[in-house]
């Protein structure tokens, strides 16, 4: 293991073997295999050929755009009290206001490769590829569309990020909920699902998980569980969708466990992890920027989807992000993300203290070590078996809004859990919210 720029650890074992492109072809969905290519974007790169005069693209002329300059300031990560002025050059501005490559601006893609090497020990040229998307949500949807056929069985951790449930439901998938606890996915639930699997029925091809500061549970999966899931992926031949928007919001006291993407390096063959990073929690959620790192054949299939769905990620957001990251360097980026995680650690502490004050004896919870969510189980009569009605009605009437656990179970399971987000509120608001929740729960007691 080696220490990374941000104090985490990566697996620096040599990569033994990468699964070949042909491995993925039968695993791609019918839609991905049938997708045809747009005759314009597929020759876009020829515009860069020296000496070529391009009559190709229907690009608007940038002199007709009304924005003539863009200046802004960013915090100096080494000294957050001071600001660094940034002025986009005319060339940068022109790139930002214009159409740009489907996979993202080359310089930002390069920055992301560098980051993945620092954070996860994965090197360029080892059979994987990065593409930028309009937020990680955009990329997760494209990956699912590229891999899953209507009606396919899929594994999801349960409870699961509510934002992926409709993706699988719309495809009428058989959604197999894997049990989780405070350590992450329970490997036995993968075994028990597959133990009696009918021989003639195709097995799940993908497993979806949020490994750090999970949405909704706040759980960070342990190293042992990650290794067990990776081993099962190899044994039972499924791919892991590692959705990791809370990676940089890890504030646990023990070292951050390595990502699935990093742990693959130590396996006899790599190429079963498709990793999703998001800039939403660390740069701006409004920029809509995220990137996928995964096997080339899968990411290329996702790129083909982009060419028909939205052409490319937002150019201007990419140019601005790049200007900030170039100015900061990876060191500044790491200082910045450490500060962000420290911010959420303090928010977690405030929320946890208020939970102790108001909900001790009424709810039970595990303290999260990453992310922005507290997931707690109601133990009073009002919601002991099902938090849905007390949270949706009594709590709302008292003026507090949270999410009942049912929202995170795709198959309609009842849940005594509640998800509360602690990212936005100050200490006074947290205290008031949990006071109201306590009253609602005691009020609703049967
Ligand atoms: N995955 C998870 C687990 C999330 O919580 C979110 C944001 N709520 C997303 C994906 C989407 O992130 P982005 O803004 O990068 O699209």
TrEMBL record:
GO terms for molecular function: pyridoxal phosphate binding; transaminase activity. Coiled coil: none annotated. InterPro entries: Aminotransferase_I/II_large, Class-I_PLP-dep_aminotransf, PyrdxlP-dep_Trfase, PyrdxlP-dep_Trfase_major. Keywords: Aminotransferase, Pyridoxal phosphate, Transferase. Residues 130-437 form the Aminotransferase class I/classII large domain. CDD domains: AAT_like. It comes from the Eukaryota. GO terms for biological process: alpha-amino acid metabolic process. Its cofactor is pyridoxal 5'-phosphate. The keyword Transferase applies. Belongs to the class-I pyridoxal-phosphate-dependent aminotransferase family. This is Aminotransferase class I/classII large domain-containing protein. It comes from Hermanssonia centrifuga.
């Amino acid at each position: 293991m080696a220490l990374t720029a941000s104090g985490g650890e990566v697996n620096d074992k040599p990569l033994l073997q990468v699964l070949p492109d042909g491995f993925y072809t039968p695993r791609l969905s019918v839609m991905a295999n049938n997708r045809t290519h747009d005759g314009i974007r597929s020759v876009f790169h020829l515009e860069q050929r020296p000496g070529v005069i391009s009559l190709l693209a229907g690009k608007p002329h940038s002199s007709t755009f009304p924005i003539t300059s863009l200046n802004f300031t960013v915090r100096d990560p080494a000294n957050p009290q001071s600001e660094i002025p940034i002025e986009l050059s005319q060339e940068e501005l022109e790139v930002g206001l214009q159409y740009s490559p489907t996979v993202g601006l080359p310089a930002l893609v390069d920055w992301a490769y560098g980051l993945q090497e620092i954070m996860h020990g994965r090197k360029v040229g080892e059979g994987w590829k990065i593409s930028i998307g309009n937020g990680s949500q955009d990329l997760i949807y494209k990956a699912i569309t590229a891999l899953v056929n209507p009606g396919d069985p899929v594994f999801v951790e349960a409870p699961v990020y509510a934002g992926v449930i409709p993706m699988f439901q719309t495809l009428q998938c058989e959604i197999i909920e894997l049990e989780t606890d405070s350590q992450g996915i329970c490997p036995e639930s993968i075994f028990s699902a597959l133990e009696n699997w009918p021989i003639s029925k195709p097995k799940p091809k993908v497993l979806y998980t949020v490994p750090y500061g999970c949405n909704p549970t706040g759980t960070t999966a342990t190293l042992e569980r990650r290794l067990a899931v990776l081993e099962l992926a190899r044994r039972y031949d499924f791919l892991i969708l590692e959705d990791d928007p809370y990676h940089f919001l890890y504030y646990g006291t023990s070292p951050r466990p390595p990502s699935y993407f990093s742990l693959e390096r130590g396996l006899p063959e790599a190429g079963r992890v498709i990793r999703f990073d998001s800039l939403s929690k660390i740069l701006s959620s409004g920029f809509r920027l995220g990137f996928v790192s995964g096997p080339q054949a899968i990411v290329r299939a996702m790129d083909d989807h982009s060419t028909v769905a939205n052409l490319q990620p937002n150019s201007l957001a990419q140019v601005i992000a790049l200007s900030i990251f170039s100015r900061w360097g990876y060191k500044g980026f790491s200082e910045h993300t450490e500060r962000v995680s420290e911010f959420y650690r303090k928010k977690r502490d405030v929320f946890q203290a208020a939970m102790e004050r108001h909900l001790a004896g009424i709810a039970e919870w595990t303290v999260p070590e990453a992310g922005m969510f507290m997931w707690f189980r109601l133990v009073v009569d009002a919601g002991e078996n099902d938090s849905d009605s007390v949270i949706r009605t009594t709590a709302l009437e008292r003026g507090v809004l949270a999410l009942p656990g049912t929202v995170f179970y795709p198959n309609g399971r009842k849940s005594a859990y509640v998800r509360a987000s602690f990212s936005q509120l100050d200490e006074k608001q947290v205290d008031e919210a949990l006071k109201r929740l306590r009253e609602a729960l005691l009020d609703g007691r049967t």
